[in-house]
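Inputs:
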Amino acid sequence: MSPNILGVSIFGFYLVAIVVLGLIAARYQKTEADFWVAGRRFGLGIMIMANMAAIMHGGAILSGVAFAGKFGGVAILPYISFVGGSAVVFYLFAKKLRQSGGFTIPDYMGDRFNSRGLRAWSALVVAVSSIIYLIAQLRGMAFVLERLLGFEFLTCLILGTVIFVAYVALGGLLAVVWTNIAQFLFMWVGLLILVPFVYDAVGGWGSVLQQVETVAPGWTSPTGVAWSTSYMLSWYLIWFVAYSTRIELVTKMYAARNHKIARASVPITIGLVLIFLLYGNFYLGAAARVLVWDQISSPDQAFPLLVETLLTPALAALALTGIASAAMSTTDSLLLMSGSAIAHDLVRRCHDEPKGIVREEREYLKISRLSIVVVGVTAFFCSIPDFDLILKIVSYAIAIVGSAFFFPLLVGMTSKKVSREAALSSSVGGTLATCFWIAAALAGASWAGAVHPGIVGLTVGGTLMFAVNFFTSPVNQQAISKFFPEAS
Amino acid sequence: MILSLPTLSFWLLIGIPAIILVVMLVDCWRIMTGRKE
């Protein structure tokens, strides 16, 4: 494969720009708070951009177009769940998280339930699930770069990983957010370039929906072309839980200048995301189904082929750069989250502080950067082999995170009468039940295919939360005063 | 067809989420202007 000169030039410029941003952001890093939550200085505009960039997965466009094209637009985009989940964050979580002054979800779990065990367990779940996601994201990004640059897969993987690790380790959240804004603009440019060409090929909304219904009857129905009503409902429930426990979004609340900004950023973000998906997934998914579906062997090829079919090589390179940018904006957030789970939660809060070990902030900054490098290198080596299993597990990762955190977050934020034991058993039991169900589904057990693993995990987690709470005592009032100031 | 109102598809995709979102945005405005805690 010969390198694509134009793709190399555009992407080369882009990579240099984000590394420079990382270097500039590195100058602002003095403490751990600077690194992980950017000194809690974000205003509303930055928060919205940061939230959007973290939510819009690299796969959001590639797999969004692929899934929407394959299964149907309404089926694959459960907007009610997206809005419902973010309403939970807006009304119940955002204010208390920001006021509690933590850095991470394990901070919430440890502080709210006054438990080092729960903090360590949560850090483990965040680190492992983020690394699994990261592997899929790195592979996805390398595939796009392969197409864009014309280099071998491994070269693209090394290039992408080194750039990421460099700017995240240098500049922490500040670098991530600045580069996210640049990536976000690139992504919009990449997508908007397509508008006149797609419109020319398939027409507007009414036209494309009529055409897609002709080639794939049922595409615009709630259950799409392949699903049953029960599958649709479980899909909607899983996404509701996934959006209310979306770590990338929930963690950003800590970086807002105050709790009002933290809260206000949520509905504005979700409104913009939905508008984006309506075009980026729904309309383009329908167009892909009409225009290129019979020329592809896998749905993942739908978007790249749509781009290459409709655009000139120069514009296609720009559009694919935009999509590679979207892949990066999630990958760096994941790198940051798993790094913080190791450096902040496990090393500082679970190991150093209980043992009375005192280190300088500069030393914690070094540990934070080292943890980013360790996570990046681990994910890189796991991304090299074509582990089909990892990619299958990724599709269940939202279920693992949801069953670990949904009830401890929801019940812990709304009731003072929750015990540590109830939260721990809900989180551990829910996660293990989900993992067990995933393993059974991957092993081909027919009974495991009847229900989504996330539904099983949530049922077990919810049951344990209420059952164990019945027999145990709530966390003492003094410990929870950060979350319920009126009680102290 | 999703655009031929009112269909279940329309309400699931755009209608109900838009209503919830508008309620949230109004509350967001009230929080930012200090009319709601």
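Chain A has two domains: 5-383, 396-488. Flag for discussion at group meeting.
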